Amino acid sequence: MWTIICLLCALTLPIQGEPIPSRRRVCVIGAGAGGLESAKQVAERIDQFEPVVFEKNSDVGGLWIYTDSEDYDEHGLPVHSSVYKNLRVNLPKDLMALPDYQRFAANRSCVAHEKVHEYLRNFTDHFNLRQFIRFNTLVEKVKPLVEEADDDRSGDFDWRSTRWLIRARNLNTNKSDETVCDSVMIANGHYAKPYVPLIPGMESFPGKIMHSHTYRRPEKFAGQTVLLLGAASSGKDLALELSSHAETIYLSHNKKRLQGLPANVIQVPGVVVVANDSELVLKDGSRVNADTFIYCTGYAYEFPFLDSSSAITAEDKRVYPLYKHMINVEHPTMAFIGLPSGAITFSIFNVQAQYYLALLQGKAELPSREQMLREAELPAGKSKNLAHFLGPAQWTYFSDLARAGGFDDLPQFYRLGFTLWDAYRNVYLTTFKDADIRIYADNYVEIVEPNGRRIILG
Q1: What is the C-alpha R_g of the chain?
Q2: How high is the pLDDT of residue 19?
Q3: CA 99, CA 94: separation in Å to the nearest integer?
Q4: Residue 57 CA to its chain's centroid (Å)
Q5: Angle between the 347-361 and 394-405 helix axes, to the nearest 10 degrees?
Q6: How far, in Å, CA of 1 to CA of 7, rounded?
Q7: Which residues contact 437 (CB under 8 A, 6 or more apart)?
Q8: Residue 16: phi, psi to the nearest 5?
Q9: pTM, two decimal places
Q10: What is the pLDDT of residues 61-79, one digit of tens each?
Q11: Among 194, 228, 315, 325, which residue carries the largest CB count within 10 Å?
């Protein structure tokens, strides 16, 4: 027995004179979908990298961990999740699923939020990621450690030489410790800090004021007049859900008018000011009254743990300076995973994480700092609020990253399915979640309605 054990031990030791291989530590902040996919990509290269994941919750899932609380979690921190009780996703599970894990345990396409959380927990266990996650751990500080010789970007500067000091606090023991890592992938999500535009006089509004971030159930608005500011995903979702409980819903926005809304959902222009008599003055000069005012105005980026020396600024909906919407231009050993909006859910995490690992491995190269800074600037006429909006440009973005990183592009069905579904939901606003999408081949996708009617793209 002892001979066998000693022989096994000998097999694990390096040959005399052979250097012991070193792994670069990659820290991931957040264990939501973006952080989990990042951790998975790092763990697949375990011979080169050591993954360490920090997660302030006691479970994986990030945004998808539902809570009835509208203010603080069990640790006294602001609630992270923006998920409401009856939420069903507005993108089919077949398109939400990560390319490397298609196992959504559900029959319908637009699943309830519980199914998304279940999917992420199954993903975690399938790839054995829990061993790398420090749960109930809040990251308090992220600071670059740069050698002076490298700081001037002169000579043969190796951007991989910048390391990071991470101070994190265990929320159960309230004790903090520090970890040094070679690179950091920030995936703390961007649906937690409400973006609230300034409306003059709002402080005098006598009713309840809230953001969709804290909305949970429709019953509490029974018989009320509710004004929803914004007609993007949350504004449309809440308007439809509240229509069977509230007396009147004003859907206030400046976009093209939506069709097919319930009779008690009245579309009005955007709110510009609250008058002295507490009436809400609209863009066209008309006025309305409401019992509750709900901002459905999206979210701002927030990274309270970043030291100023990280050289990153986050102003509402723009993070600067970033190359490819993800790489810290001044310290490229820092990457932000999942910032872009208007892009297919979850798959962006997969593509970005693969590209970043290719950079760390030396399989892809960065352009000059000057070129990265030029690409980080906003195109002429583009609003800061749309700085990271991709929309139709997402497919070129994905393909460019895949080509540069030397890995496969997303399967074609993602683009075909998203294109078909996006057009369908814009026409059938109130019923699209009851339809199913079916993918038969990489280039053949169809939507099947409850009545059996089929819409095909391929």
Answers
A1: 24
A2: 39
A3: 10
A4: 16
A5: 30
A6: 10
A7: 92, 94, 95, 109, 417, 420, 421, 445, 446, 447, 448
A8: -55, 130
A9: 0.91
A10: 999 999 999 999 999 999 9
A11: 228
